[in-house]
């Protein structure tokens, strides 16, 4: 049960039992997400790892950018992005091009093949989300998405405030 604040303007401390339940559910979610990689359904299921999906998705949403900008936007270091992008370039999903304003600089861009592949995976993952939440109302899906987004942003802010923690986690396969 939350403690009662001594002063009405001071928020009550969160309930320890509720926080234990929350951290447990986050841990279960992380395990399930890793087991399935939330890869969708059908032929595209588990066909793209999380790092590749996030990189391709960001390039699609934000357009071509350099490694540093991509790393900053994803909250990981440049060396991690470089390592993760290499196989995407090798397989033709991402292309390296000259920066339009500074020909010496290189930017990464989603290739037509990369966009096609990303759309295939997105469609499969969208289908999985529809199946998993098929008995949810639109309002429940919207609320869950808003809360999960808020949670992810709070985690990102926390990681940005403690850079040592971010490097430990993103330098591993968890990135």
- Provide the low-confidence segments as ranges: 166-175
Q: H/E order of the elements?
A: HHHHEEHHH
Residue share in helices? 55-70%
Which structural class matches the secondary elements?
A: mainly alpha
Main sheet specs: 2 strands, antiparallel
Question: What's the gyration radius in Å?
Answer: 20 Å
* Fraction in beta strands: 5-15%
- In spatial order, strands of the major sheet run 1-2
How many strands? Answer: 2
Rounded mean pLDDT is 83
Q: How would you describe the overall organization of this protein?
A:
- It contains seven helices and two strands, in the order H-H-H-H-E-E-H-H-H.
- Strand 1 and strand 2 form a beta hairpin.
- The chain starts with 15 loop residues before the first helix and ends in a 5-residue tail after the last helix.
- A two-stranded antiparallel sheet has the order 1-2.
- It has 175 residues and is mainly α.
